[in-house]
Write a structure and sequence with these properties.
Layout lengths: L5 H20 L2 H4 L24 E4 L9 H16 L3 E6 L9 H14 L5 E5 L4 H13 L3 E4 L3 H13 L23 E4 L6 E6 L3 E6 L7 E3 L7 H11 L4 E5 L6 H10 L6 E5 L2 E2 L15 H6 L4 H10 L12 H7 L10 E2 L2 H14 L2 H14 L10 H8 L6 H7 L1 H4 L7 H7 L5 H12 L6 H14 L4 H13 L7 H8 L1 H21 L1
Parallel strand pairs: 1-2, 2-3, 9-10, 11-12
Antiparallel strand pairs: 4-5, 5-8, 6-7
This protein binds one RNA strand of 75 nucleotides through helix 6, strand 7, helix 7, strand 12 and helix 12.
Amino acid sequence: MPVWDERESEEFISPQYNLHLSFRHADRSAALPFLGGIGTITPFYLPNQEATDTMRTRFAPSPTGYLHIGGARTAFYSWLHARKHGGRFVLRIEDTDRERSTEASVNAILEGMTWLGLEYDEGPFFQTDRFDRYAEVIQQLLDKGLAYRCYCTREELDDLREQQMARKEKPRYNGKCRVGAQAREGVEPVIRFKNPTEGAVVIDDLVKGRVVIQNSELDDLIIARSDGTPTYNLTVVVDDWDMGVTHVIRGDDHLNNTPRQINLLRAMEAELPIYAHVPMILGEDGKRLSKRHGAVSVMQYREDGFLPEALLNYLVRLGWSHGDQEVFSMDEMIELFDIKDVNGAASIFNQEKLLWLNQQYIINAEPEYIAHHLGIHLGKLGIDPSEGPDILLVVKAQQERAKTLVEMAQISEFIYRDFDEFDPQAAKKHLRPVAQEPLEKMKAALAALEDWSIEALHQTVQQVSEALELKMGKVAQPLRVAVVGRAASPGIDETLALIGKEATLRRIDKALGFILQRVQAG
RNA sequence: GCUCCCUUCGUCUAAUGGUUAGGACGCUGGCCUCUCACGUCGGUAAUAGGGGUUCGAAUCCCCUAGGGAGCACCA
């Protein structure tokens, strides 16, 4: 069973989760009555569904891994489409492949969607709970003569395929058992759908436009394996129909499956959904996104310090645009996004642009929001934020300086603890003998300072600079390297304020020691 | 191999037959400045190739090339 973050589960997962429980464990024969034969079947409606004319989109991942970037985008597009039109967004888990499906993957997918904030209105439904229903539809197709048992063995099919490939033909089933096939000893038959042999299937795809496929290109696909379990093309079609899905938004790797599914839908005399096939997302090398490309799991982006809003904004702009606008609020995305405007071409995932967007979101976010997430990343560095200054002050000081929350934690480390070594480059440039006097003067002035406020600190640095007749940079930079260890930090006054008086004086001493050592070393 | 989809700066995209082909990321030069960053002003860089149609093509048609997907008792 999924393990939820208590706080988040209350908000929007819980209702579906309860339904999931009741759906999985209830007496299905009572809960899900089926009616009639082919032609008179009316789609049944799952317990929480309302009117049949409600627009519905769905996300239907197979739980064989985490939620990846491509899946997240199609889920998001489906979600946006439903939200925009006041429809419902359905989550369905396609777990009929029992070899590869895992509970852990289901949880990973739900966790990913939760993090992104893609709450679903119905589901999650599990296909493994619906085998009775699939069996029923298959039987009806059989009764109607729209499907048949095929007794060809795997070996025979393999041979057939090889021969066809050798002849440079498209491999497909030859329809041997289509008429008058006899049961064979020791062969458990599969069930095939009798695909039309003539004519063409027309798909008016919202993204790809009109796509026409000749039925002569299609063969009689298997809808039930020899062990009786249904296959993908059958289950999607039955589910989309039963669940009242009106808009099928999915990856364009499914475009080639669509004509088969349409033929199946027609055989069941079901209403056809509207299709939208969105293109793939490619890695930086132009190849299909894979583990080689690093962070492909959406949860990895959380680990890496990205905000979910930034990731969604990036994904919506990947393949879609609204004039010159780059940054969109969630409301704007819902209002402006239109699946019809999605580009038909595959696009390359560009980490640099995502980083830029993430920084924009960090800059514009409420400090409280950032602080909440920053705490986690500080914790990973072994830092307890409560042992330092108010974390809101840290966020405000660093907000414009980090592309990710991980980076923000890293560049804030100096606030919480002394560093071990000076950055060699920075020390070489700034901790030189000429810096000795400014540092000593600063130390004295700071030691005497009672009011450790940003304003007072600013004045102090300025006064010391003026007294030495130096530009402020000549004083502030050595001081910065002394207390931060590096040449970059927030304004020197803010920096000192965050570090505190005691640590500041201690670190200046250390820097003076460093310079002395350097002089002696020659 | 066959079928389907796709092709504008390095990347994401705008331009629905008439624009000096626009914006954004990146890279880069200036400004701002105590550093870094933010911000700001500039620069760099594209219609895959070839044929048509048209007064006029990134845009419509055809061919070629390149990329992707599908052709499973996976989803």
